[in-house]
Amino acid sequence: MEEEHTCPMCRDLFDRTQPFPCGHSFCLPCAQEAWSQSAGCGKRRFVCPQCLEEQGVVVCDCCPEDKDNEAQAAVKTCLRCEISLCEQHLQPHLQRPAYSTHLLVEPLMDISRRRCPAHREVFRYYCMDDREYVCPDCILEGQHAQHQVKGVRKVEEEYKVKLQSLFEKAEEKVKQGEMMLQEHQKACRSIIEDSSVSDVSQVLHMGSVLQAQVGQLVSAVINITEQERQQAMERVQEDCSRVREDLNQTESIYRFLGSLLDESDPFLLIWALQTDDSQMMTDLTSPLFTPPQPSMDKKHVLENVENKYREFIAETLRCLIELKRDLLSSPLTLDKNSAHPLLNISEDLRTVMRVKNRLCVPEHPDRFDHWSQVVSCQIFSSGTHYWELEVEGFWDIAVTYHSIGRKSKEGTAFGCNKISWSLTQQRDRKLAAWHNRKKTHLSTKMSGNHLAVTLDYDSGSIAFSEVGLSSTLLPLHNFSTRFTQPVCIGFGLYKPELNSRVIILKKI
């Protein structure tokens, strides 16, 4: 029993055996792989991967066999007449009405397995309840009474309808995977290459300012930046490999389903569809792996730089701090689809302003419908990032899980749940930190409108600071946590007065 249920290709056991017409049995994944490879090579029919039935040449049974005339290769086998026919001798079966009910399949060397072993009649029907082929005598004897019995051609037609639906799903998923892979590769090249060029340029500029004293620093930072770029490229390649794996799996199913649709032998088609297709449906309905937004983590670069030159003069330290913020600055834009109708988003997606009258915006599942809030387009799941903002009026700046609720009142305001951390300035310019409905009053006030946010995802650190004179950072409040989901930046402008707005400053 174990040998009968062992796949001869992978040597794994499978639950139910459904042999090929030739008598060999395989697990579904191995059959799919073999048939997908055959389809990729341009073959139009399924063959047994073990005996390779296709390699045999079936000759015409009607051609005379003598020394002068050699029998022609058959192009079809008639299961009613139990003969194989070449193109010439096939014509009567195609033209004469008397042969219209005869079942023609691809040439077969042995049709004994297409015949009922009990009655020696060719199988022309299929019992859906017992999941087996039956001949007319089996039906007359009542062995399948009250069972759902259909003609083989009818079953073939029904299965091809089902196959067409699966085929279309596979085709759509293949297209989606190819598009996602192309877009991700393009975005990765742009972000990583541009970031690398910009970093080296900034380091070289600092070297010219500090002259020979920073020469060693320049070389060290370039080397560290290159290492970080290589690591970022490796992460990108890993993400692309996962996308390719999903794409290759879907393409394999796509080729498999395409081959099934082109299959003219109903027995092989029914065999393939009688195997458990739940895994195939799961693969087709499961979403493709969506790679995260690529980013380069400059934290290690800056730590090495600061450790080597802590003793530098004040001007050197100021240059290093400025370099730190430039390297960590990440792109940040506002997601218009998430913006509450009382928030006006600028064309460049970098400014949000509170308005008194609701704007006409389309419905969207990501849009906040109670609190006048908006989140960033960018999502972060690793690395260290830095942003500078210009803030005015009554504002709320938050780091929040991207999964935060967008509908209703309860649990969707920044800082009033476990998944967001925010800093708020009220009418009197007093500051407060919020997390999980807990409000922490801060004794300090901002002297200006220049705010900095630093996010270290890996260590779970969030720092809010005021950018003072000479670009020095004046700490306002720090949060420490452990992130378990991707985060984004959130902006809340709850009061229409005071000209409340936030501008994302672009680092040059």
TrEMBL record:
An example molecular function term from Gene Ontology annotations: zinc ion binding
Organism in which the protein naturally occurs: Cirrhinus molitorella
GO terms under cellular component: cytoplasm
Name the record gives this protein: Tripartite motif-containing protein 16-like
UniProt cross-references to Pfam families, sorted A to Z: PRY, SPRY, zf-B_box, zf-RING_UBOX
InterPro entries: B30.2/SPRY (IPR001870), B30.2/SPRY_sf (IPR043136), Butyrophylin_SPRY (IPR003879), ConA-like_dom_sf (IPR013320), E3_ubiq-ligase_TRIM/RNF (IPR051051), PRY (IPR006574), SPRY_dom (IPR003877), Znf-RING_euk (IPR027370)
Domain of life: Eukaryota
GO annotation terms (biological process): innate immune response
Domain B30.2/SPRY: 312-508
Keyword field contains Amino-acid biosynthesis: no
UniProt keyword list: Immunity, Innate immunity, Metal-binding, Zinc, Zinc-finger
Domain (RING-type) ranges: 7-51
Keyword Transmembrane helix (UniProt): no
Domain B box-type: start-end pairs: 111-152
